[in-house]
Every structure is written in C-alpha cells, then in structure tokens.
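[job 0412] stage=fold_complex status=start
inputs:
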Amino acid sequence: MNETDTGTPGPILTVEDLHVRYGGSHILQGVSFDVAPKGVTALLGRNGVGKTTTLKAILGLAPRTGRILAAGTEIQKHSTTRIVRDGIGYVPEDREVFGGLTVEENLRLVDRERGIEAPVVDRLFPDLVARRNQRAGTLSGGQQQMVALARVLLRPTTLLLIDEPTKGLAPKLVTEVADVLAEVARSTPILLVEQNLPLVRRIADDVVVLDAGRVVHRGRAATLVADADRTRELLGVSMRKEGAA
Amino acid sequence: MIEAQAVGWRVGGAQILDDVSVSVGPGELLGIIGPNGAGKSSLVDILSGVRRATTGRIALGDKDVTNKSATRRARMGLARSFQTSALFDGLTAGENVRLAIQAAGERPFTPFRRAEGDDAERIDGLLARVRMPGRADTLASDLSHGDRRKLELAMALASDPSVLLLDEPMAGVSAEDVDGLTEIIGEVRDVGVAVAMVEHHMHVVLGLADRVAVLHHGQLLATGSPDEVTADDRVQQAYLGEAL
Amino acid sequence: MRSPTLSTSEATEPPRPSAAVTPPVGQRGPAKAWLPVLPAVLVVAILAYLPYVPVEVPGLLPWRVNGPGSMQLVATCLVMAGIALSYDVIFGRTGLLSFGHALFVAAGSYLLTISLASWSLPLWAAIVVALAFTTVLALLVGAIALRVGGIAFAMVTLAFAQAASIIVLRNPGDVTGGEEGTSLPRAAIPDLLVGVANAPYRYWLALAFAVVAAVTVTMLVRSRAGHAMAAVRENEARAAVLGFPVYRVKLLAIVVGAFLGGLGGVVHALVLGGSSPHITTTEFTLSLLVMVVLGGAGRTWGALLGGFLYHYADARLVEVSGSSLFQALPEVAGQVLAQPLFILGVFFMVVVYFAPTGLAGLGARLFRKGRL
Amino acid sequence: MTDLLLLVVTGVGLGALYFLAASGLSLIYGLMGVLNFAHGAFMMAGSYAGWWTMTSLLPASMPVAARLGIAVVVAIVVGAVVGLLVEVVLIRPLYRRHIQQVLVTVGLALASVAAAQGIWGADPKPLPKPEWMSQTTQLLGARLPNDRFVFILVALALYLGLLALLHLTQLGLVIRAGVENRTMVEALGINVRRTFTIVFSIGGAAAGLAGLLYSQYSGTVSPAQGGSLLIYAFIVVVIGGMGSLTGTAVAAVTVGLVQQLANYYAASGVGDLSVVLLLALVLLLRPSAMKGAMA
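[job 0412] stage=fold_complex status=done
writing structure:
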C-alpha cells in the first residue's frame, strides 16, 4: 500500500494510532501514516474527515492519544511550544495572522532579531517588505497567506504543516502560493492539507487520504490523481473522466 | 419555499457573496456545491438569518424576511443544521429532541408548567424517523459521529419545517452513515419540504438533488439538473481547481 | 459551571427497596410519582420536629437542639440554604455568573424593615412592597446587565450591587441605619415571631421558606422554562437557532432568582429581627457563590446543603477556634485560623480544584447520573 | 472657576489611583481572560507591606518621604512576587478553565482578607504621610492637594511605561499578539504561559503600588481597602473596554472626574452612584464596545 521510496532515510514524521476526542465526538479513530523526509506529502479527504484535526493533534493543539515521532523522537507528550521550537512549523487554515499587528510585527514575533530583514523574506515575499508597516488585518487574503508562510520560515524548520493555503484565494494568487510552496519544498518537507487537486498534482509527491477519521489510502500523488475513478471514490470531487487543467 | 434574490455579502474589503440568486420549492432538493471558501456556508447563514446580507433580499414562502432574525425565521418554518454539529452534549438524545420540540412550540419557556410527558411520543417518532429508535436515553456525547448528525436532523425536523437548510450534513461520517443520512434526507424532501443542502459527497448530491447550484468565489457559476451541471465546462474547471 | 445534570437530586435517589414502600404491582404508576419525593419529605419532617428534641449534641451544637441559640442558628442556616438556592437559579441552572445577587436579598430585607419602621405599613403590605420592588429591580438590572455577556455581565452585576451597598451605608433619610443596620419595630411583628421563647416559630418560618424555595425551583426546573434555561446554559447559540428567546429566558431566570432571593431577605429580616449592611456587600454575594459551588451548582440539594453548611461553618468555626487545639498553635497562625472566612475560602479553593461538581456531585457520583 | 480646577485636579488624581488599580486587571483580563478577584488581595499585600516597611522596618528617625520611597519599592516587589506565586500555584493548573480560575481568585480574595484581619485586626491602621503630600499648592487661586499630583505623575509614568512595554519590547509584542489569538502565539513556538506569569507579576506590581498609594490617599491601611478599590477598578475596566490600556486610562480619568463632580455639584455620596449610572449608560449606548484590543 505504501509506495514511498525505500532508498531514502527514515520518515521525518511518523504518526501511529492517533486518536482525538472532542466534546462528544471521536474525530480521529486511529490514524497512522508517515511523512517522507523530503518533498510534499498531501493529506486529502472530504470536508470534516479530520485533516485539520490531524495537524492540530500533531502540534498538541488538540487533545490526542497515540504515538507521534518527529525524526525518531516521541513528541506526543511535548507542549506545542516545544514541538514548534524543535522544528515543526504550522500555517493554519484561515492564516490567523495577528490583524492588529503590522506585517513587520507579525514577523518580529517569531524572529526578534531579523524579522522582515531576513533573507528568506526578501527572496520569497518581496511584496511584504513594501508593506512592512501595514496592519496585517488590512491585507488581502493572499497577502495574509504570505505573512503566515513567511512567519514560519523565519524559524529553522525540519517539517512544515500547512493547512489549505489556497482556500478562498483568487486563481492568480493560487498560482503564486503554489510557486512559493514548490520553492520551499525543495529544502523543507511539507505535510499539506489541500482541496485543490491540480495543485496537489503539481507539487505533491505522496498522498494520505482520510475518511471518517481513518486513513483509507496511502500512495504516490501522481498515481492517485491519474486514476479518476479512485479519486472520485476517495474524494468525491471528480465529475468527469479527466480533470481539466 | 425559500428564495435568495441577488444576495451579496461583504466583510471588510472582501466580497464573500456576489449577486447570488437561488430558490428551492416545496418537495425540491437543491444541492449547493463548490470549492472550499466559495461562500456556501455563508449562503446558508444568510438564508437562515444567522448573518445578514449586505445587498439583496430573502423571501420565505411569500414573505420578505430579509431583515428578520434567525429566531423569527425559525418560527416561520425554517430549520437548519450546522457544519460542525452543535448538540447539547450534557443531555440525552431524547432531551435534545424535546428541547427542539419545545423551542418550536407555542410558548417555548412558560414557567412552572411541567414539560415532561406530552412529548414522549413525538420524540420517539422523530428518533425513529432518523433511524435511531430506542436511543432516547443515550447521552448526546456518547453517540457516534453519524448518530450525532442524525440527531441534529431529528432536531431540525422537530419544528415540522417547510424549509430545511443543511450545511454539510455528512461531513466526516462513515460510508454506511452516509447511506442512512441520504435516505432520511430523501424522505424529508418527499413529504414536501424544501431542502437546500451544502455537501461535499458528490455522488450523494448528484444522486439526490433535483437541482444543483455551483458557487465559485462567491458567485453563482451555474444552476441546473445534476446532468446539466456536470456537463458544464466552467464547472469542471472551477470545481477541479484553477488552471495552474 | 456546566453541569451535566439538570434535575433535582431527589429524582436521582434510587428508590429504597424496603417492604414498606414497595407498592403492590397494580399501583406501581402512582406510587412511582411520589416515591422520589420521599427522602425530601423525610428530611423536612425531621427538621420540622427538631424544636421538640431536647437533647444535647456535643460538638455539633453548643446548646440543646431545641434551645433558642440552636434554633436561631439552624434557622439562619435554613434561610441561607434557601437564598443559596435562589442564586443557583441564575448561576447553576442558567449559567449566568452574576456577582450581584446580594442586591436582591438586601432589597427584600431592607424594604421590609423600612416599610415597617419608616412607613409604618402593616406586615402583609410591607412584604408585598418588598417583593414587588425586588422583582421590578431585577427586571431593570437584568435588562441592562444582559446587554453584555460572560465576564462583563459579572462585573456589571457586581457594580449594581455595589451601588446598593453604598446607598445603604450612606443611610439616606436615616432609613437604612448605615453601618449599624436597622431593626424591625417590635409593634409591627406578630408576637409569635418575637422574643427568645418564640425561637421555634422563627425556625419554622425559616424552614417554610427553604421548602418554598426548594419546591419552586424544582417546579421551575421541570417546567418548559427550566428546560429553556438548561438549553441556554449548555449551548447558547444553539438554543437561539432552535427558536428559544435567549435574552428573555435569561431575564426570567434573573427575575425568579431575585424574587426568591428577595423572599429570603424578608425571612432573613424576620428571623434576625432586622437588616444588617453585611447582606449588601460583595463579600455576601461572593459567599453565595461559594455556597453554591461548595454544594454543587445546578443541583437543588447541592445549593441547599452548600448554603446550610457554609453558614453553619461560618458561625461555628469561631467557637472551634477557641478550643485547646488552636491554642497549641503559634499566635499568628491561631489568629488566622480563627477567621472562618479564611478556612472557608481555602476549603472553597480545594473544592474548585478537586471536586468541581461540589458535595452533591460527589454524592451523585456514588449513585447514577441525574437527568433532565 | 477655582472650584472647578480643584475638582478637576482631585478627580483626575482619583482617576490616577483607579488607573493604577485597573491597569493590571485589564492587562491580565485581556491576555488571559481571567477576571482576577484576587487583585484586591494584591493591593492589600502592597499596602500592608508598605505600612510595615514605614512603621516597623525603617527607623522612625528617617524622613517620612524617604521611608515612603522605600515602601513604594517594597510594595511593588511584594505585589509582583504575590502575583507571580498566585499565577504559578493557583491559576496555571486551571489553564483555559476560566470560570474555575475566577472562582479560585474569589476564594483567595475571601481567604486573604480574612487572614489579614486575623493578623492585623479589622481596624484601619494609620499610615505616616510625608508632610509635603499633606499640604496644598496654590494655583490659579485654587488650593490643590499635593498628593494628587503625585498620584497623577505615578499613574502617567505607569501608563507610559506599559505603553512602551507593549509597543517597544518583544514581550509587549507577544502580549499584543496573545490578546488577539493565544493559540496561534503558542503555535508559533512562543511560550505564552511564561508570558502569563510575567503579566500576572506586572499586574501584581501595579496593584501593590496602587494599594500603597490608595492607603496614602486615605491615610490608613485596612484589610477591606483593596476590595473597595477593586470594585471601581472593575467598573473602569468594563467602561474602558476590557483589555485596552488606553481605554482603561480614559475610563479611569472619566470615572474619577464624574465621581468628584457629582459629589460636589449634586450631593455627597452621589458620586459613587453616578459612576454606576455611567456604567449602565455605557452599556445601554454601546454594548459592543465591551470587547477591545490592547493598545
């Protein structure tokens, strides 16, 4: 079932039998998967199957049981702060930038010394430098996404968890975000939650598909996207034989 | 029936919904689909009165309800479910339904009138209708995810609504529960309720809906029968994502 | 604050399997209806009989059970139990963190004494004035305070209660008696409620109030309004979408709680022979909160028990601190421990950490869970 | 005119005391969502620590002003330490359980006032006041009490200091971000709980200072003092918009002025009531103003 290359070193992240119970709901019911140490692993599934919850559980933002190994170290008992400091960056759904703070302040929060002057910002997000004194809350959705991405890249990361970065963005911005993600993925592995299948096809190497709180498929991204029937069965999105692009 | 006429909704600088017109008649099921962030839940919120549209009008039956509160619309025969289930977790399934019956009744909070007794039959009837007979005494927090969604449906049906709005009623439920919920929703439509449903399970929407509305970036991309909509090239493009 | 149980705990007590109460099969239906009430009836019967018990219970009460000192103490405990229950309508049943309940108790108490002493009204009219005014006050204060929610609501109710406290202490028109408080005029009170010898009658009055409060709250909780309150407490947004008028439900809870609290204030004044500014203070409101949480918020028995025990402890701990046990301690420690509020405050913190459902919650855990 | 000037100065002076008491409360509420009833206990700790320093620790031969200066430092330190201990021992274990956190601070408020009564008695103890602060200054025909100028200056310093902290330091950045979205601050790898402890300490320090200065204002130290000042602090925090520093400052001055003016132009005692009326008015006119941002 798992077609990940065997020639590469061990996974950067291993999730074993992850359970999350919230209020009365049993949202994750024993999720297990690996994230390869390079490239993009896409976490797919219909709405409400537990993709966002999986990311939050890895970070300790949702009450979880099970085993989580980051580069071989068990982290399921660690606090969120420690997990992030140990190198897992998080870009949440809906960006969650600090709207009352300026762009620069949003970045200085993570990196007091360099902030907006960090080379990575200049290289990937030149637009933000021009808007350094603008309040993040007044930025467009795409710009806010760039702030959210820049924010995690300021800290040295071994893995990025990115939740629906293109949600609600206009087509042109989707392309821009995809370009940034592809660039980032060259140096840092990404676990990506995404609904946009063409984007998944373009930048993802592996896929993990969730349904009703369980993993129902693991494999190569290209293989899944090419198989329209399987895509429809797992994700329910494909409406005709072949997706347009 | 419920009808949205040229509804628009702006938040801050963002146009979440733009000139959207849809309507659902009695005994009709409208499936609302579209990529994430397209404005589907916002549309349901505006139809149900949880949010107010910036432009356009909403009609419920033959009355204009554009400026009526959610509570007023509920009393006029509109019921809805939420994307994330919102039950009273500390209460049993039966008590949840009883509260819904009571809320829809004539005097929802008369003091010092015994509330128990009269409703037992209706509670059982509603639970049976959503395939949960005999679960009245189970705590809501102990129900499976699928049963929670069914219980929500039972609560929405407690008011005998003429219009039912469902926001992803099958989000996160298992395959067998999807089938059960599909059957229940079909039955509700068949007794003459106007149903509008946001849903990501495409085979459910295409199999169940009489008409489908496709939202994209807050705009209505297409409406029509499932066959018409699936054949539409713009829908194909939009739904499977932007050209990259 | 969120408590999973909604019913009174008499309904949760399992029927006792004794021959005397097991009805013949044919009568099962009607017998079932009164069976759960039995423990409550028994408790009331025992309490009502206490004035005829001339024994001493060393350690528990300093005097004979039916002595005037004991009667007065237990009577005040019962009044506090009822007042705590009135606060629980707002806090435990509806989930509103109000810090202004003292306002309504004080309104009942002071309006009674002022009506009698300054306006020379007959007793029945004074009671009507006190209760009517308290109810109107609750409507006004509730209507304003409910414009905000959560912590802001708590602060606003606190501010209103504080305003009342200030008025009482300023002694406007010389009617409230300032820090001294004010006493009931002897002539306006029926003889049965006056004097050391009549302590049992005041005791029965207090018991009657506690019973009235308990019955009222039980009926309220089982009524449509009670269910609506529970819905609001459990999930306000959900309750609104179902069609409950949330604002009015909350206002009703405040008004009913205030009415019972005002009645408690009236009885408090009658039992203690006057009004004291202590019942207007923030400290008094806070102690009501402590009583309810100690006993178990959202449970009728819990609030009653909490109110009763809190006042009992408050009154008795002073005596205990004079005992030899405390004399062995260093002077400062003894002085601190001699403060009942210190011990109660610390005990309260312990309960919040280790028994968040209160004493009644601990009790109920031994049986099955309570239901709507 | 001279009356008005006197009223304004005394009103603003009173407002300064309210601000000292309310700023820490507002900061703690804004960041952590905790309504801290024990804030009165922090103030009490500050005032007793100051009183003890001035009357027992330091020799009576020392000038009162010097003793007061040292007492202020002691009060601030004691307030900060008490705040730190309360956060670490009592508040932190109840992380995110706001109602329980409030209840615990209620218990602490009751217990600490009772403890103080047990140790020092319920009666107010006189507190030495530097002679200059008891005197008045002639300005535009009005005889203005000097102590009010001290209160105003100290409050102004605290306000500017807190503003600088919020806007110029990394800690302030974390606090402002945390007021907006605590979870996200954590998810960026910032130890927000340590920030909570620091903020509680800062709040405690401000409260200790407020407690001692309030005792200077009233001339005595008593267990109930903190509680009565706390009520006004609560009102100020609500009017000021729950968690907004500038809002708190404006509200504090407004409340102080309204109270002084009403006491003078209406009748003595009306001032306290007019403050509550002001609160009701604010709620009726703009209930949505209750949620503010840190500024």
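[job 0412] summary: The beta strands of chain D are 125-126, 136-139, 142-145, 220-221.
[job 0412] exit 0
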